[in-house]
User: What shape does this take?
Amino acid sequence: MTGIEQQVTQPYKYGFITDIEADSLPPGLNEDVVRWISAKKEEPEWMTEWRLKAYRHWVTMTEPNWANVKFEPVDYQSIVYFAAPKRPEDGPQSLDEVDPELLKTFEKLGIPISEQKILSGVAVDAVFDSVSVATTYKDTLAKEGVIFCSFSEAVKEHPDLVRKYLGSVVPTTDNFYAALNSAVFSDGSFCFVPRGVRCPMELSTYFRINAANTGQFERTLIVAEEGASVSYLEGCSAPMRDENQLHAAVVELVALDDAKIKYSTVQNWYPGDENGVGGIYNFVTKRGKCSGRNSKISWTQVETGSAITWKYPSCILQGDNSVGEFYSVAVTNNRQQADTGTKMIHIGKNTSSTIVSKGISAGKSHNTYRGEVKILKGADGARNYSQCDSMLIGDRCGAHTFPYIDVRNSSAIMEHEASTSKIGEDQIFYCQQRGLSAEDAVSMIVNGFCKEVFKELPMEFAVEAQKLLGITLEGSVG
Amino acid sequence: MSQTAAERFLEQYRTFESNGAGQSPEWIKKLRADAVRRFEETGFPTTRDEEWRFTSVKPIFEKEFALTGQPDREFDDNFIDPNAFRVAVINGKFSSENSVLEGLPEGVTVMSLAHASASHPDLVSRYLGKQAATGGNAFSSLSSAFLRDGVFVHVAAGVEVGKPIEILFAAVEEGVVEHPRVLVVAEPNARLQLVENFVGDEGSRYLRNCVSEIFVEEGAGVELCRLQRESKSAYHTATTHVKQERSSKFDATLVVLGSLIARHDLTYVLDGEGAEGTLRGLYLLDGKQHVDHNTVIDHAMPNCQSKEFLNGVLDGESHAVFTGRIVVREDAQKTDSKQSNNNVLLSESARVDSQPQLEIYADDVRCTHGATLGPLNEDSVLYLRTRGISEVEARRMLTYGFGVEIIDAIGIDGVRESLNQMVRDRLLVEV
Assistant: This one.
């Protein structure tokens, strides 16, 4: 199947480097670097202290080694911890002032930041090498009382809100990467939806890692007050680099009574070449807390990129009747390794969670689902349904499923199902018999396999996700 | 505490080695020395070890265990199968006066492992410790370090044993640790049914640390039924290794009723094309019982099949742990593997940790696993109540049905009937 091999081996489409002078620190990390970052961002004293506390704890921690991934250890002293695109004065006031090179980059990525895209109704807080350079559509949001801004702006403008919620879901001591992020995070997004407000549009951020050897450490915090609802989209793509780049982000979601948060991710970072050289290390901590009654947090992710993925978007179901959802498609090819899944922690009564995970591995990649469902003693009537399906394409890849199920309440009902198989020859044959090419047949079957997850994605993401899946996999079966 | 549990065992080993154990042949001494070295390196596991996250061995070692009990211990006839050949193991030793082995067909050897090591050294050394040496845990290393006696079962090529062979592991004395060992070899195309029956005196506290190695050669068929009825104050740690060659069949049923803390590591290696392995298990727990099953089914060759079904019924403050790993090696194409772990929780304080795991390196496979946990299905209870059955009765019937699903598949008639009665007594009365 040479046509198929061509498809699989085509180079990374989004690999290009924008040449902008960066205002960077020398590589390395110590307390001074943490203070420097904090000072650079003109942060108040409590924020600096918070970072230092995280740093001091990080120094005492060791990297987690339980994940089913293998990689060269990261040298944390050779990473540049801050790189801001060099801007005169205080940064751009409007889109016109934004560096045209930057805008071109966004355009190549298809980010809806231009006028035309704004009209399509998406407000964007684009993160480019750690500093937000443009925030659009703020006015419409402001009218509803929705705060959507860069994290550094939030620290300045809304310190009380940030102080109240920052670290309330992912404490600085949570894990190695979260502690590192807490110490050195450079920027990110902050979103606050006040009581009773349904956010009028889908919010979106686009992350890109640009300068070589810069780790990117974003921090995202989304708070939905009583009865509020918001849908947030996150997309990721990085230019081609030969050295591995570290990405350790933290995302925190807080949903109060009757609030709803939907968080969708399409992750398409550079996965390294076919020999496993280069690529992003994606070590991310994402967690949502349903702290109010009847609240709901839903994670949807499509993971096609990164050399190593270590990511477990989780839900703490604390409020009674709260709902957690996790829908995931993870695709690995060549020598990619992914260890991803979720944690559902049932604390409140009548809480329910749904996990649907679809893993597809091809080439020499390894794809692991690792998920935990924990039903605590007080969680009467808790309900969980988990389904993890894996599909193998090629005989040199691996698909692994490691669910952890811990139930301490007898009224809870918990079901877990998993299956692993390859695309049936009979299925391909059936399609071919109806005049489809083998490639189209595979694409159709894989899309059908992932359908349950794709239908959870917002429209524009669903289209991108299917496209990405096509690029990564189309016809890799022969 | 001045001396850790591991140090106590090491000291016990030195005493054991310098005393009577020294009469063993050289190769056994080497096997013991290697094992004690492995144990020295690892020590006892803690809950920080991934494989032991939910099972703490600390309570087991709060008190010391003596290595040997009274030599003239009374023997209670607790055999479960009325029709089987009988082997009694008392104080970890093969007791020929309490065994009934008349009429064993030609080609079937059932004898003391210590005697077999002396009389058939070539045969025994070819198998003994070969599986346990690699991939075992601290307890299986200890078993090899204190290896003294046990049971050796050998069935020659093409021989069918005809009747089941039941090994009764008699009650252990209070405060004693016992390391009984079983070695089973079924040569090509042999047929064997085996029962391992562990009993204990209620209320007595002891540690039984057993290792069984089972070799199922080409085309052979072995059925194992393992019944654990230890005292509910006792500790039971066990390792079962099964190695299957081409086109062999191995079928095991585990039934766990006893022990305070039990941990059973069970490994199947499907090492020849067309091998079929089945594992069924049932644990009925109450009080403060803690039972941990750690199973690995290793598909090393193509075209093999495995099925694994474990059911649990938990009452009181009992805690069940299940870690079931299915590994499909590279090139083990056409593997067909199923696994399920279903649990019914009857009380508020019961707890289950279930970790079914798939580790797959080949693409042309069908592997599924599933786990369920929960109370009895209320729809089923309602269905029975609409038929005029009381709620209590309905719950009993459903729980019994859930347990007996596993028992009914046992192919050894005598054992199946007795176990059915035991499960009935337990579940139809207690619910």
Notes: The first strand of chain A starts at residue 22 and ends at 24. The radius of gyration of chain A is 22 Å.
